[in-house]
Automatic annotation (TrEMBL):
Any GO MF annotation of the entry: DNA binding
Keywords for the protein's UniProt record, in alphabetical order: DNA-binding, Phosphoprotein, Transcription, Transcription regulation
UniProt protein name: Stage 0 sporulation protein A homolog
4-aspartylphosphate carried by residues: D54
PROSITE patterns: HTH_LUXR_1 (PS00622), HTH_LUXR_2 (PS50043), RESPONSE_REGULATORY (PS50110)
Amino acid sequence: MIQVLVVEDSRITRDAIENQIAKSEKYILYASIENAANAEIACLRGCVDLILMDVCTADEESGLKAAAKIKQYNPKIKIIIMTSMPEHSFIQKAKACGCNGFWYKEYGSTALMEVCDRVMNGEYVYPEDTPMIRIGYSNSAEFTSREFDIIRELAQGRKYEEIAADLDITPNTVKYHIKNILQKTGYQNTLQLVAEVVEKRLILPKY
């Protein structure tokens, strides 16, 4: 049997996943915890084959950061990142730390078990893109990667000069991108833009 560690702070989601595991003939629940900071300890205490890891867990602990640590010392453990957030960078971050799959909660727990099967068979299973979110006059698919970089920097309270230094571009290039973003969205200023993307969880800087 495949030992599964579930890291999820939503009781409803956790129960749904546990029910799917209980019905399975392949998987058995090793443990179910709310805080990603405890995932590494849980892995050290027993034989975990697969981790189903939420991005945003209890006490604002990042599942992505926990996954990266676990993969460093035990890359054989399979990790599937789970989220209900459309945050643009999550897929990229999950791939960067070596996670084996990615699942949006809106797809349902049955679909999650299909992802588990594929991952345990050696596949890397990722959605092609994030769910589309309406931002002003545009949807999220209309923004370039560089524009998302700029928006993320703005959401962290960075000034134009700081953004330019972080992204290795000129302040004029930053202004050019921001002008394009505001034209696409119809917002009058960056404060309106940042408020919208954070409210809709398209950008979550702390994770």
